[in-house]
What we know:
By secondary structure, this protein is an alpha/beta fold. It has a single domain, classed as 3-Layer(aba) Sandwich (Rossmann fold). Helices cover about 20% and strands about 35% of the residues. The chain is built from 6 helices and 11 strands. The chain has helices at about 50-60, 80-85, 100-105, 130-135, 175-180, 200-210, and strands at about 5-15, 15-25, 30-35, 40-45, 65-70, 90-95, 120-125, 150-155, 185-195, 210-220, 225-235. A 7-stranded mixed beta sheet has the order 7-6-5-8-9-11-10. The protein has a 4-stranded antiparallel beta sheet with strand order 1-2-3-4, with no helix packed on it. It is globular. The N and C termini lie far apart (about 55 Å).
Amino acid sequence: MSARFEELAWQETPIGAISLRRRLDPALNVDVYEVKLGDDFLMSSLFTVGEIELARRGLAEVPGTGLDVVVGGLGLGYTARAVLEDERVSSLLVVDALEEVIGWHERRLLPDVVGLSADRRTRFQCGDFFAMVESATGFDPMAPQRRFHAILLDVDHTPRHVLHPSHATLYTTTGLGRLARYLQPDGVFAVWSDDPPDAEFLAALSSTFAAARAHVVRFPNPITGGESANTIYTASGR
């Protein structure tokens, strides 16, 4: 049996202290990996259904093969791992603002996703996803203005509850229009949210893309014994 608690990594960053912790949950008898930003919990390996469905539902709407994908927000790596499970994917660029988070995966601190950094299709890019949307270069500094078949985003809690005020513009028609420059004509943008469907954000998606949907993803909550839900937004076409 593993030790009850272990802090695997801790680092002060421009947005606060970020830490990766492992704890043994005695009720479930499993190791739980958690990310905290200051005193706030950002993610937990107990709740990964939404992150996985972000990849699956986003890619399900993309036709063809040889797909190039961007994931904004690395975190515990479950979205990125789910992307690589799709055999149509030929390249995955994972953008994260924190070198420390990328380092967790390069050091293979997370046993569920140890193959992520070793997959030849994967490249990590340290950078501000939201600033990249605004830039003339885009997400890939090695290929300026490169277009992708899918852009998958899991950084903020919701389109309204953002981690930094600079993120808010993306969730407007102006920001979405700028992001769409980096999608292939048949590409898909998908974003995770911890709240129920937001009619205002869905309207912004619909005004930018030909098709926009809000998918409610439900899953068992082992802490409460009940059910929890996330929302996955998908948008495609211009």
